[in-house]
Amino acid sequence: MYNLLKGKKGIIFGALDSKSIAWKVAERAHEEGAIFVLTNAPVALRLGTISELADKTGSQVIPADATSIMDLEHLVDQAMEILGGKIDFVLHSIGMSVNVRRGNHYTNQDYSFTKTGWDVSALSFHRVMSVLYKKDAMKEWGSIVALTYMAAQRVFPDYNDMADNKAYLESVARSFGYFFGRDKNVRVNTISQSPTPTTAGSGVKGFDGFIAYAEKMSPLGNATALECADYTISLFSDLTKKVSLQNLFHDGGFSNMGISTEIMEDFMKGFESKEEEPKKKDKK
Ligand SMILES: NC(=O)c1ccc[n+]([C@@H]2O[C@H](COP(=O)([O-])OP(=O)(O)OC[C@H]3O[C@@H](n4cnc5c(N)ncnc54)[C@H](O)[C@@H]3O)[C@@H](O)[C@H]2O)c1
């Protein structure tokens, strides 16, 4: 490895199990020489396997619900105490839609669920940054990253209200990123990742089709969770100090594609079989 994060201190939100993108980021950050605390919602700590990751990376786990200012304040205080100083990097890897979980169609949302999903998935990013900013907890030239998905820009019908949450999240990255940059020399970005088989990802209706389609559309194929972790590490490193307020696509090229030959061939197969049917009848 490259020692890209040697001596750096971080907070990593959202490692639930070994499939989680945050889990891979933690493993890679550890390999690159960082020390960090892991955090997740109390319920996720009970259901997931984060203690394995903590043992493996020599980290402590601090429970925090990302919708609670009190939890976040406690988390940041504890993190600085455990790590012995200000924070160099933060990963926000949190997403959850109650409407998706309950199978509510986008056109027929339960708005109390919509509010909860927005609070957890989008407003939480503002809250995390606000606590870090007010406590002056970020070290100069530190880096804050949140994970997002391209449904913030383009229509993916089954992504449901998470599309709106991601649009808000990306906007918060720009708006807060301005103040964090101007006042503290800290950069803020979002990474827009390919569909990835994790607990959150698999909750989306028709997810296997989603993944297969993106794989065939992207010239480099889908980006894996580990590749996403590699990219995140580069954004935490000193090699990207002037990258800020960006939504960075990490998707094998998908976001700039119109159509690929593979998808076209699959599409035409459907046409050809329809065209063949009457021909067969003609022969009879
Ligand atoms: N999997 C994909 O296809 C994909 C694609 C692009 C972006 N993303 C984004 O990546 C991020 C990580 O998701 P993942 O795919 O690794 O799935 P995941 O299910 O492993 O991670 C989601 C995490 O959010 C945490 N969380 C939920 N409610 C919380 C709360 N109130 N407080 C604190 N944490 C809470 C969960 O406990 C979990 O650890 C999410 O923002 C997701 O939207 C995922």
Q: Can you walk through the features of this model?
A:
The protein has 284 residues and is an alpha/beta fold. It has eleven helices and seven strands. The protein has helices at residues 21-31, 42-47, 50-57, 69-83, 98-102, 111-134, 162-184, 199-202, 207-217, 225-236, 261-283; strands spanning 9-13, 35-40, 60-63, 87-92, 138-148, 187-193, 246-250. A seven-stranded parallel β-sheet has the order 3-2-1-4-5-6-7, sandwiched between helices. Helix 1 packs parallel to helix 3 and helix 6 runs parallel beside helix 7. It starts with 8 loop residues before the first strand and ends with a helix. The structure holds nicotinamide-adenine-dinucleotide (NAD). Nicotinamide-adenine-dinucleotide (NAD) is lined by residues 13-14, 16, 20-22, 40-41, 44, 65-67, 93-96, 120, 147-149, 193, 195-196, 198-201.
List the helices and strands and how they pair.
Blueprint: E1 9-13, H1 21-31, E2 35-40, H2 42-47, H3 50-57, E3 60-63, H4 69-83, E4 87-92, H5 98-102, H6 111-134, E5 138-148, H7 162-184, E6 187-193, H8 199-202, H9 207-217, H10 225-236, E7 246-250, H11 261-283
Parallel strand pairs: 1-2, 1-4, 2-3, 4-5, 5-6, 6-7
This protein binds nicotinamide-adenine-dinucleotide.
